[in-house]
Structure formats: structure tokens, C-alpha cells
Amino acid sequence: MGNSLSVRAIAGEPEERADELLRDFGPSKPPVDDLESLARHRGVTRIQVDAKIFADGLTLRETEGFAIVLRPASAARYRFTFAHEIGHTHFYRPNETGVWKHASAGAAEEGWCHNFAGALLMPAAWLRQDVRDLSEPSLTALDGLIRRYRVSVEALTWRLAHLQIWPTLILRGERSAEGWVVKTLAKSRHLPGVSTGLRTGALHPGASLLERAASTPARHAAAKIEWPVAFRPRGRIFLQTEFWAEARVQILRDGTMLSTMLVHLMPSAATQDRLQNPR
Predict the structure, then answer these.
(1) What is the spatial order of strands in the sheet that 66-70 belongs to?
(2) Are 77 and 152 in contact (CB under 8 A)?
(3) At what angle do helices 75-88 and 14-25 cross, to 10 degrees?
(4) CA–CA separation, 177 vs 204, rounded Å?
């Protein structure tokens, strides 16, 4: 049972399962902090932190209930993994003798739990309302949402793309010996006709902008970048090669350089003015 139909036949829709848990036992606004309480309502009776486990988290069925074992991590990653593991509790059922069994859905189960974690920590209704309250997509807005929901930039950008909220491309990159390379690309599903040709590990578009951001005290810069992106509206194809983008670079203690770039596909006049004339 490894396809998307069977995973939902076992556990239902991840958005619905997360909404039910929050509606019955969770808070009414972000952040969703008390994950231990939500886990208990899903039958979790033991929560343990163990640095020796081989994965970020594990969910086990024991005699009295579920056990969730988590590896130490940053606060944001720990919270996402915890929510992910709560999702796994939806894949256990008692058999005719009352013994709980894991109804495995293969690799599709991991994707379901990933979606469940995003929906639990960043409910669609809350996130859409918060984005409506913002004037425009920006890295500053992204930072505010990260603080409000207490999630990582990776989790938030994936969720924004999954919910089709911003008409942007959000790239995460890293400086290597060969130059800047792409680690992740988040693209809204309402842009199915947009083709970037990018893959993980590919050379990062707008590398000069990233270098400029890395050299400024604020580690932030904005400019037009050259990047051939194909658009296929209604069966037609046209190529756009220039976009407004803004980038931020983080330099870790070990010297590793990580980047976040927000590429505006359909910027408003206000966005173009902000990027062209920073204040």
C-alpha cells in the first residue's frame, strides 16, 4: 500500500487530522507550543530524548500507548520532528484480538506525516490570515512569520508553497568550493506552468546578488537577476530572463554560508519600489 490513495485510506487527509486535533485540544492562535499535550491526546504515553537514535524521531507502539523518541536538535527542527511523529500515530490500528499493528503505507507515510506536521504547526487558516495582513511578500515578512510560528525557514517556505500563498520562488542555497549551489526550491503549486530547470546541487541563479549580500553588514541585498524561467500559460510558452529578487546570507560559526533568496515572479509596483529604493 504505497500510493497516495492508500495512505489517505489509512489515515485520512493530513490537513483534516491536524485541524481536528487543534480544534479539540490546541490553542486558537500561533504558536502551537504544547506538543506534549497534543501527543497525549493521540495516545502517546512516553516521550523520550535520545541522542543515539539513527533518525530524527521514532514512533513505537507499546503496551499502554505510543512512545515517541526524539533526537536532540534546534528548537524549530525538534518541534517539526515532534509534530511529524505525532502524525505516525494515525497509522496504527488494533486488530481483532486488540493488538495494535502498524498499517504501513511505505514511503507515502513519511510524506503524509510531513504534511501533517506542517498543518499542525502552521494551520492553513491562520497562515493565510497572517499573510493577508502583510502588505507584500518579503524576507522581512518571512522572518516575522518564522518568529510567530516558531518554525524553520525551510518548514515555512515549504508550507507557503504547499498552500499556494505567495507568487514567488524561494531558494535556499549554500556556498561551496564551486560557488553557490541550490539546496532547496519552494514553488507554489498554483504556478504549475512555471519551469525553472533547477535541481538540488545545481549552480544558484543570481550568484552575484548572493555575493553582494554576503559582503554587506546587514547580509541582505536586492537587485534584478538574470535567470531563464519558462512560463506555459494555456499551452503557450514564453521565456522570461529577468526578475527582481532579494537575498539574505547567514554565515555560521564554522564559516559555512547559507542563503535565502526570494524571487518575485509578479511583483507589485510597491515591491519593485521597495527593492529598487531600499530605505
Answers:
(1) 44-49, 66-70, 57-61
(2) yes
(3) 100
(4) 13
Burial 79-117 (b: 16+ CB within 10 A, else e): bbbbbbbbbbbbbbeeeeeeeeeeeebeebbeebbbbbb
CB of 174 within 8 A of CB of 182? no
Same domain, 186 and 239: yes
Phi-psi sector, 14: left (phi>0), alpha (psi -120 to 50), beta: alpha
Strand pairing report for 194-195 and 179-187: unpaired
User: What's the pTM?
Assistant: 0.90
- The sign one gets for the Cα dihedral 90, 118, 162, 226 is negative
User: Read out DSSP for 164-200?
Assistant: T--SEEEEEEEEETTEEEEEEEEE-TT-TTEE----T
CATH of the domain at 37: 1.10.10.2910
Residue-range definition of the domain harbouring residue 101: 4-121
CATH number at residue 188: 3.30.450
Q: Which helix (H) or strand (E) holds 56?
A: none
Contact 182, 170 (CB under 8 A): no
pLDDT tens-digit map of 164-177: 888 889 999 999 99
The answer to whether residue 156 sits within a structural domain is no
Other C-beta atoms closer than 10 Å to the C-beta of 69 total 18
Tell whether 263 is covered by a domain: yes
Q: Using one digit for the tens of pLDDT, what is the confidence trace for 72-110? A: 999 999 999 999 999 999 999 888 777 888 887 778 999
Domain boundary among 121, 155, 175: 121
Task: Give domain status of residue 126, yes or no.
Answer: no
